[in-house]
Amino acid sequence: MRTGSFFLFLIVVSFPALPQGPVFKSDEGAIRGYDPVAYFSDGKPVKGVKSYSYKWKDADWYFSSQNNLDLFKNDPQKYAPQFGGFCAYGVSRDYKVKTEPDAWTVVEGKLYLNYDTDVMKTWNKDRANYIGKANSNWVSLEDKEK
After folding, report:
1. 22: helix, strand or coil
2. Burial (CB count within 10 angstroms: exposed 0-12, middle 13-18, buried 19+), residue 30
3. Can you give the pTM of this predicted structure?
4. Crossing angle of helices 117-125/127-141, nearest 10°?
5. How many CA atoms are closer than 13 Å to the CA of 98, on its beta-carbon side?
6. 123 near 88, Cβ under 8 Å?
7. Neighbouring C-alpha atoms within 13 Å toward the C-beta of 103
């Protein structure tokens, strides 16, 4: 048994980490080139700049400052939007759809993006329910093409 565990350990550490699912990206980069950290630090969407960029999950992420870039690099899971930046309401309805930077909420320290501000209004009426559904749906949606 111990030998089997050792070989399993060797297999696990010998392979690089697998990607953690797709990220919504456009020609402007991940989440349309907006700084994911700014939603937390500035309380609003802020466009990132190419001089502060970082490649993560096969996408280019842009930041408005070196400090925000450093914060993201140290803990991307903390700042990256849920569901890869796809519309959280859409994921709750079992599909992936684009998002707009001004349609967002932070709930319990997590960033959620929506298709547009009208969808965000619907999302805000029953967020806890939609988050639960989206979390369940994301397991099967995560690796599917849009």
Report:
1. coil
2. buried
3. 0.83
4. 110
5. 10
6. yes
7. 22
Handedness of CA 54, 35, 99, 141 (dihedral sign): positive
Domain ranges of the chain: 21-77, 81-141
| Residue 130: Cβ-neighbour burial (10 angstroms; 0-12, 13-18, 19+) | buried
Q: Pairing state of beta strands 49-56 and 110-113?
A: unpaired
Furthest CA-CA distance within the chain: 57
- Tell me: the pLDDT tens digits for 20-74? 457 787 778 999 999 999 999 999 999 999 999 999 998 999 999 999 999 999 9
In angstroms, the CA 65 to CA 134 distance is 31
Give the Cα separation of 135 and 40 in Å (integer). Answer: 21
Cα–Cα distance list, 142 to 4, 14, 17, 50, 59 (Å): 31, 25, 17, 27, 15
Q: Could you tell me how many helices (H) and strands (E) the chain has, helices first?
A: 7, 6
Q: Which residue has the tokens 């998002």?
A: 99
Bridge partners for 110 per DSSP: 107
